[in-house]
Write a structure and sequence with these properties.
260 residues; mainly alpha; rod-shaped
Length: 260
């Protein structure tokens, strides 16, 4: 090899060594190693080993060994990271889906009245699963994130259905409640009408007895009429108490209807 060839070979070695130094420095962004530009640089260097001629044998061997060492070390590192991410991604998927399943409503819904407190608790659990997905998404593969998202959405649909059923249930209960109150109100109003009519008759009867007692001259009749009056006054007192109670019940039912 001539002195010119040696000079060119050393220059080529320097070019190759500079590129390998760049490769060895690594490609980092926000403390995270960027593998794509690393392998692009690695392929460039691999091509230089073929294209840069001449190269001194000892330089070629030395630089090739260094290149392979950097390349293999990084490849192993990437494989280890991938293996670790595989494990983390699968573990996160398992944990998130398990949390979402905990938010699944009881299959007996529809056979018993909806439990509002239980539905609120399950809603909090499902929101927890969403937070976990958001927290771990950078450590998960796309297909694992999609599985979690779809399962959460499926359970959310069950929650939405249950809340709709709860609204229907509440509306039905409200209608039944109003119907019961209205029926009860109507019955009490009828009872009140009959009771006040009975009270008027008893008061008229008592007034009639008082008149007859005041105008009677027969002691036997006066004694008998006084007993009848006592009975009438007792009935009047009972009916008045019953009327007051009916008026209280009517007022309570009317208040319930106003508040519905």
């Amino acid at each position: 090899m001539t002195s010119i060839d040696v000079s060119v070979a050393k220059r080529n070695s320097k070019i190759l060594e500079d590129e390998i130094d760049t490769l060895a420095a690594g490609y980092w962004d926000m403390f995270k190693f960027q593998y794509k530009p690393f392998w692009e640089q690695s392929n460039l260097i691999f091509g230089l080993f073929k294209s840069l001629k001449p190269l001194l044998k000892e330089d070629r061997e030395r630089l090739w060994e260094r290149y392979l060492d950097i390349r293999n070390t990084t490849k192993q590192k990437q494989q280890d990271e991938k293996s670790n991410r595989d494990f983390k991604s699968r573990d996160h998927r398992k944990e998130i889906i398990a949390e979402a399943e905990r938010a699944k409503p009881c299959s007996l819904f529809g056979f018993a009245p909806p439990d509002v407190d239980e539905m609120k608790r399950l809603g909090n659990v499902l929101r927890g699963a969403r937070r976990m997905l958001s927290e771990f998404k950078q450590e998960m593969y796309g297909e694992h994130k999609q599985e979690c998202f779809e399962r959460i959405e499926d359970i959310q649909k069950e929650h939405d259905y249950w809340w709709e059923e709860l609204k229907v249930h509440r509306s039905k209960k409200q209608e039944e409640f109003v119907c019961r109150v209205q029926q009860n109100l109507e019955k009490n109003r009828e009872k009140h009408e009959r009771a006040t009519d009975s009270l008027r008759r008893q008061r008229a009867h008592a007034d009639d007895l008082r008149y007859k007692i005041d105008t009677a001259w027969n002691e036997g009749f006066i004694s008998q009429a006084s007993e009848w009056l006592s009975e009438a006054e007792s009935k009047i007192e009972d009916i008045e108490g019953y009327v007051r109670k009916l008026e209280e019940w009517i007022e309570e039912d009317e208040a319930k209807l106003r508040m519905r």
